Amino acid sequence: MGVGVQVEQLNAWFGATQALYDIAMQIPANHATAIIGPSGCGKSTFIRCLNRMHETVRDARLEGRVRIGAMEVYGNGTSAVEVRRRVGMVFQKPNPFPTMSIYDNVAAGLKLNGFHNRRVLDEVVERSLHMAALWDEVKDVLKKQSGASLSGGQQQRLCIARALAVQPEVMLMDEPASALDPISTSKIEELIFQLKEQYTIVIVTHNMQQAARVAEYTGFFLMGKLIEFDKTEKIFTNPSDKRTEDYITGRFG
Amino acid sequence: MPDRSRSRERFLAWRRTVADRLATGFAVLMTVLVVAPLLAVFSYLVVRGIGSLNLAFFTHLPVPVGEKGGGVANAIVGSAMILGIASLIGVPWGIGAGIYLAEYGRGRFASLLRFTADVLNGVPSIVIGIVAYALVVLTQKHFSALSGGVALGIMMIPTITRATEEVLLLVPLAVREAAWGLGVARWRATLSITLRTATAGVITAVMLAFARIAGETAPLLFTAFGNQFWNLNPNQPTAALPLQIFTYAISPFDEWHRLAWAGALVLIALIVGAVAMVRVVARRGMFQGAS
User: Fold this and answer.
1) Which residues from A are below 8 Å from B192, CB to CB?
2) What fold does the segment set A5-98+169-248 form as a domain?
């Protein structure tokens, strides 16, 4: 089951440049939450702070508090590896492991953490590929074809299956469909719709229609600040902030 | 006017075609020039060496001047032993240092390491032989395959280090991030994902280094030293193909000159064979690695 995400007083920097200012957000469990905003507004940086990917960038740092369920993401006793095991991530460009078969790609998270029971792995791989709506397309070539041999849309669903296989509680998606064609995009959106019954989903998107279609909650970022966070319906029909309204009506960005 | 512009267009098209042909021709010519010396060396070796090749050459020990027949069996085995020891030293050391430089190497220590590797790469092989002589031979007070292996192993390190660093840096950040995002520990991601993605490149690096040291003679002169008899003890003076070729080639005897040609042919063939074999095996293992 998914858990909620609480963010308080989050500030983030790249070197001397501040990328996020005092972000506070309560992301509800088992819903999809969209993060929208113009390029460079800090959307990606924000979700990369939730699973401690931000700190892998050189000279990047941050302050503030993030809780995933009961876990203090930046607590003293919490390791980045532990956080990332519970918070899955799907990236903008599909990034399957190029030298691994489809099966090994999905099983990678478990295998690399020392889990080798073949029967259980088989089950997990099948279930994850089913959930990612890819099973029927690849079931005959699981161990024969490399993950990189699939089409872009299939690769992205493979990456979703790979993230699901480690059974995270929260799933972060960084513009998961922006590099895909419309059909693949709609498949990914359908998937998000189903996944949110079991996972908390945070999705960064450039596409406002996409946010409106898949997410119950939406946060609007502008220049590193969270301008407005509310029910998606409210954001798109009756935003409280003038800047949100300007953005969704296409006046800038 | 339209006529003139049409003829000008035709002229331009003609010029483009000519330029294209010239550039292609130049590239082909250069390729031939690169391959030609290699083929020349190889075919000359075959012509001069094939006559002395027979089963005995591979299975017999060297014989004194004047006696017919004899072979280099001990030198083939000795070379294998010395190259094995060298690889045991050079491969893990070189790959380890390459991983450090690519994945963690920032700041002054890393620059120093890079610089050192580049300098070491340029050190004449005979100097490395002297170092191995001082370190191993003088300590043990006798020549040995071990000291030869140390000398050649040291020579492998910088080549493998720098090449491993290069190929690891070619692995996209997205692949590393995918691994980190799954909650895989950093060291594990480096070994099982980044290094594995770059396997083909790392193998090429190792093979280049291997081919380079396999024919080295100078560093073996006062380390492995050579031996006319069987020796399987890494602590004893040991024959090696390049040394045997050297001995035969500088001798005044025609029969030995023929043996030197045959030995050179065998040496080249073994190196090419080893490189090809490793490539085939590595390619076949590509998908099975983690399972």
Assistant:
1) 112
2) Rossmann fold (3.40.50)
